[in-house]
Amino acid sequence: MMKVHARVFRFDPEEDEKPHYQNYVVEVNEGARVLHVLQAIHDEIDPTLAFRYCCGAGQCGSCAVRINGEPGLACMEEARDGMTVEPLDLPIKKDLVVDLQPFLATLPRICPRGEPEVPDREKVELLKPLRSCIECVCCVSVCPAMDVASFDGPTAMRQELRLALDPRDKGGDRVREAVSHGLFTCTSCQACWKVCPKDIEIPGKAIEKLRALANREGLTLPRHQEVARLVRETGRSIVRTGPTFLEDAPEVIEPDGPVKATVGFFVGCMYNGRLPQTARDAMEVLKRNGIRVIIPREQVCCGSPLIRTGQVDFLDTLKKRNIDAFVFRKIDTVLTMCAGCGSTLKNDYRTPFRVMDINEVLTKFGIEPPARLPVKATYHDPCHLLRGQGIRDQPRELITQVVELVEMPSICCGSGGGVRSGMPEVAAALAENRRKEIEKTGAEIVVSSCPFCEFHISEHTDRPVRNVTSILLEGYREKDRKKAKGTVSS
Fold first, then answer.
1. Beta strands 70-73; 64-67: pairing state
2. Which residues, 6 or more positions from 226, have their beta carbon under 8 angstroms from its beta carbon?
3. CATH, domain range 2-99
4. What is the pLDDT of residues 376-389, one digit of tens each?
5. Which end of the chain is more exposed for a tag (fewer CB within 10 A), N or C?
6. pTM (two decimals)
């Protein structure tokens, strides 16, 4: 047996003015699940505690709650001493019970054909990743777009694709239905996938596939079509506004001291054309820390804007050109500093080389300690870095060497998935939520590691928005100034 202290959310709208938390202590068997703790509380201490459960085996989705802030199934998550149990971030009926009806009501249902047709093998393989949903709505509870726009949500989109692919359904044009219910509102933040108890990759396996079907039907948003046309004509997804990074940078940048590693640099469209100075800052930091950088000039857009918006006809051409550019130079490690590019190269390409984000490279090989700056900063986790690449600690390890770091919730800024270009009002509403969280921290600056996040957030906050490497470079320059004045030892 083990003793578990649990902090449980309590709220009865009919009796309580506001929610509160109640602390409980129960004894349960070693390896007990969160559900066992809730049952022990209900049976031994407080029979008024309300929560849902049914199968107790992770198959019905009834017991979905938040455990220490993260959605999950109470019957599957192991109980931990000191845990906090809360309802999903949805309308509350009582305590841990939320109102599922409005969300389940939006799910499209199959309309069987009179003479059923068996799906072929190709469609069966496409359907497999979509069939295991247990309608726990964990994904709905974390979807940022649903908070600011008319969007039926990730599980509804998953179901729309399932029916669109199934020849046994006669429910009409499921693709057009999905578009009308907010298909292009998803920012590809991947929060839904990361909390799904069944690990359904809704952005990649459902929403992007639906958008590709929409593209075949001529339903792609006009602005997204413009971006695709630009990529075809120029190899870049943004219009150039001045000299680009690739035009100014040498093909090889040698480090100041001994060579720790050699990498190829995939610059990405934003850092190449819109924020070239940030890329130059990064090269200075790499140079100072012993990293030789090779920069192929033939590289083009990684294709992420096309993948996210369902315009994949030209994708293989981009992939081949980019892979060939680095393979030709016998580069075995490609460095990215754009979160979207890095996620795309890692997850949507099959490369013969290793892909590493710049935060990974700098923490792996170590950096010269910079001078500390008297600045309070908060860090914005780019979705394609945090959830797309699983990189959380490395940027923080670098940032905290230079400035004081104040944390804030890791929520989407609204710039991804083609939403900024195709649905700017939704992107702005999400950025407003990000601005509010930034202000709560009291930070003087915002630090991030994605050009789209940096550019988008800077338009919606009065705080300066800087890249991780730019902050490191400021620390190095301050260190050099102090050294020149004789205030630090060599």
1. antiparallel
2. none
3. 3.10.20.30
4. 999 999 999 999 99
5. C
6. 0.94
